[in-house]
Amino acid sequence: MDRLTITETFAGISFPGHLHTRESLQLAQHFQFQDTDIVIATFPKSGTTWMQEILTLIHSKGDSLLAQTVPNWVRAPWLEHTYFRETVRDEGGVRLITTHLPYDILAPALKKSKAKVIYIARNPKDVAVSYYHFHKIAKFLPDPGTFEEFLDKFLDGTVHYGSWFQHVKGWLRHQEDTFFYITYEEMHMDLRDCIERLCGFISTSLTCEELDNVEQHCSFNTMSQNKMVNCTLISPEIIDHSKGKFMRKGVVGDWKQLFTGPLNILFDRVYQEEMSNCKHSFPLAQD
Ligand code: PPS
Prior knowledge:
Blueprint: E1 7-10, E2 13-16, H1 22-29, E3 37-42, H2 48-59, H3 65-69, H4 72-75, H5 84-87, E4 95-99, H6 103-110, E5 116-121, H7 124-137, H8 147-156, H9 164-171, E6 179-183, H10 184-189, H11 191-201, H12 208-217, H13 220-225, H14 261-275
Helix pairs in contact: 2-12, 11-12
Bound molecules: 3'-phosphate-adenosine-5'-phosphate sulfate.
């Protein structure tokens, strides 16, 4: 499928037409989840691929064979992508399913099952910077213009996949005991502890050695070399690898490189307005 310049609008949100059609989005909305499914939900650039890798490695008890031989989009397919139906397994057992969709679109279908949901959030300033750089290499995303222009759209919620604020606030409403909330920054600070907590959530226990292996295979350096996750399998017609890398920097606080003083003040003001009604403490914008 080509449709590199097509924008699909669904539930008032823009989506890249190269990856999604109205039909694929409708199928996602009405998907029949199984109780054994594990859903990774994120706004783009929040640590999706990292979580796909961590869960793959937890399930393989630290054995990297699957992670090194099967692309992440097959191991943990995106629910809303056009290829989902032909990729997702129908037989029983644990399925990893990824989504960037906002909560309101998925909630009715999700609530019909006991599927586990792992939501990862990241400092929105770092999300905006990572997303901006990704727009420059992904030919299925619109030209971002200058960083100021892009940030305006990010704050307005008119970038593809919609508003970061609505996304986070929406998913934090899913306060079921099947819900696990984690931040990119926690994973950065203490990956081992996060892996152990995830193991608890999905009722898996690993030996010390297996935990060591999961941690090692999910490091930024190892993942950057793994072509099953670093996007180098994707053709240059779709991702311009000469302009930058998908596994770009993997750091906390990179926003400081692109945010000027006035942009930071603007961002903090919008953040306060948008997040003041959010009960969950979410102090990331200050970091
Ligand atoms: S996407 O396109 O939505 O699937 O992107 P996503 O995977 O959510 O986010 C990509 C950013 O996550 C960084 N990343 C990591 N950081 C630290 N450690 C590990 N292991 C790791 N794996 C992925 C990746 O580098 C992107 O962030 P930036 O800031 O652009 O480097």
